[in-house]
C-alpha cells in the first residue's frame, strides 16, 4: 500500500504508474482512483513508513 502526499492531504492506493505529466493511482481491484499531476505531488511513500513497528501506531514523516 502506498500514500500519495499532496498539499491538500493524502490518497491511499495499492499501486501507481508514472505517466508523462503525473501519476495514476489504483486500488487493490486495479480500479483507477485518481490522477495526480507532478506539480501537485509532494511524494509517494510506502505505507510501512507510517508505522513504527509497535503495532498500528502511526508516526509523522513530515
Task: Write up this protein.
There is one protein chain. The protein is mainly β and 62 residues long. It has one domain. 0% of the residues lie in helices and 47% in strands. The chain is built from no helices and six strands. The chain has strands spanning 2-6, 9-13, 15-18, 22-26, 32-37, 43-46.
How many DSSP H or I helices? 0
Please identify the structural class as seen in this structure.
mainly beta
Distance between the termini: 18 Å
| Strand line-up across the major sheet | 2-1-6
Number of strands: 6
Rg estimate, integer Å: 12 Å
- Give the helices and strands as they follow along the chain: EEEEEE
- Contiguous runs where pLDDT drops below 50 for at least 5 residues: none
Overall 3D shape: globular
Strand content: over 45%
Mean pLDDT across residues: 86
Share of helical residues? under 10%
**Could you describe the largest sheet, including whether it forms a barrel?**
3 strands, antiparallel
How many domains, in number, for the residues?
A: 1
